[in-house]
Design a protein that fits this description.
Length: about 300
């Protein structure tokens, strides 16, 4: 991806190295890894922290996070991550340009999300989704329209999950921006309200549809980034490989050596994630996002 030396977004907040805050129970969505792994742990009767450590992460996150005393130490910022700060800022600016082009009309403008960087091992307080730790991976909080990202996740993505390349990283950001678009359109609120009235299996299926929709929107971004001449040969393949590596089935098999029941999936299989990213990439039409909620589950 052609990103070096290009315009950066003004919406990136660098909170790396700041003092921590107390951990407490949270309810945030959009993380790519931990939610799936926690489900695997529950299904296999294991401590979620065991599986998280297998993926090179610190401990179980999400709803299992307990009260702790506030951090009192200052965290060192990894100097090797500085080029990633530029990368993230440039990619976020590209998403802003693409989505302004696609969504702005005479009556409204695309509202840009914030992207906040934070340090590994230091919980960060969100504006509406409680306190989260870096072990949850990248996530979007609708309460403050902010994407949260710890840059070490990109190392996990490449070294532990085999998703290499700068556009694999761009895909992660574009996916979280997809959750922001769902928030702007009211899609995520509608889905979450429906989930409260459904069985766990049916609620999980809605979660899968929501995640595949975000993958579709990431593909739409890739289509228009390519049209703007921003991509290098092989970039789209890097994103497709990343989508494949973070499917529920791939993560479960990597963590436990087996794949659980489809009813337990929350983000979609590798094949589904690849399929919907590719659909968005080939069409470039954001209106196609609604198809993930219109077709039978067996066709996802």
């Amino acid at each position: 991806m052609k990103w070096r030396g290009r315009t950066r977004s003004k919406n990136v907040q660098d909170h790396r190295g700041r003092l921590g805050t107390p951990r407490r129970k949270v309810a945030a969505g959009g993380g790519l890894i931990v939610l799936v792994v926690a489900v695997v742990a529950i299904l296999m009767g294991q401590d979620p922290s065991f599986l998280l450590k297998m993926l090179g992460q610190a401990q179980a996150g999400g709803a299992s996070t307990q009260h702790q005393e506030p951090e009192t130490r200052q965290v060192q910022v990894n100097p090797e991550h500085e080029h990633l700060v530029e990368f993230v800022s440039v990619v976020l600016k590209d998403t802003e340009d693409v989505w302004h082009e696609l969504l702005d009309d005479g009556s409204q403008r695309y509202r840009e999300p914030t992207l906040r960087l934070f340090s590994a091992g230091v919980p960060i307080e969100t504006g509406g989704c409680g306190v989260q730790g870096s072990e949850v991976g990248p996530f979007y909080c609708s309460g403050d329209s902010t994407i949260y990202l710890e840059l070490g996740f990109f190392e996990l993505l490449e070294k532990k999950l085999g998703a290499k390349g700068d556009f694999a990283r761009a895909y992660v950001i574009a996916h979280e921006v997809g959750h922001h678009i769902q928030n702007l359109t009211g899609q995520s609120r509608e889905v979450h309200a429906q989930q409260q009235r459904l069985s766990k299996a049916d609620a999980n299926l809605l979660s899968v549809r929501l995640e595949l929709q975000a993958d579709y929107l990431a593909g739409v971004f890739a289509h228009h980034a390519e049209a703007r001449g921003l991509l290098d040969p092989g970039d789209v393949d890097e994103a497709l490989n990343a989508a494949s590596q973070i499917g529920d089935d791939a993560l479960q098999k990597r963590a436990t050596g087996r794949v659980g029941r489809a009813e337990s999936f929350t983000h979609g299989t590798s094949a589904q994630r690849v399929r919907w990213f590719r659909k968005g990439y080939l069409s470039g039409n954001p209106q196609g996002m609604f198809e993930t909620f219109e077709i039978p589950a067996g066709q996802l």
